[in-house]
Predict the 3D structure of the following.
Amino acid sequence: CNDGGDKEKEPQTYAITVQTSEDYALTPDKTAAAAGEKITVSAEVKNADKYLTGVKYNDLACTESDGKYTFTMPAEDVTLTAVTGTYAE
């Protein structure tokens, strides 16, 4: 007889938040994930005077490929930020 006491626990999930800006929009494919999950982030520049040089999670650089940014979820909440540059006049 199984009393349910040894059923598998749900994995711990951590929040994914985005630092908001008028210059860019970051959209992760999830708003929460377990440690070890691969997260993909789409980035869109909203200010014509700016360009994107990268995306960071908790000040660590995401990997860029084909305009998408990815990282492996750590065992902590993360905040996504974009790294931008300004076009010279």
Notes: The longest strand covers residues 78-86. The two ends are 74 Å apart (CA to CA).
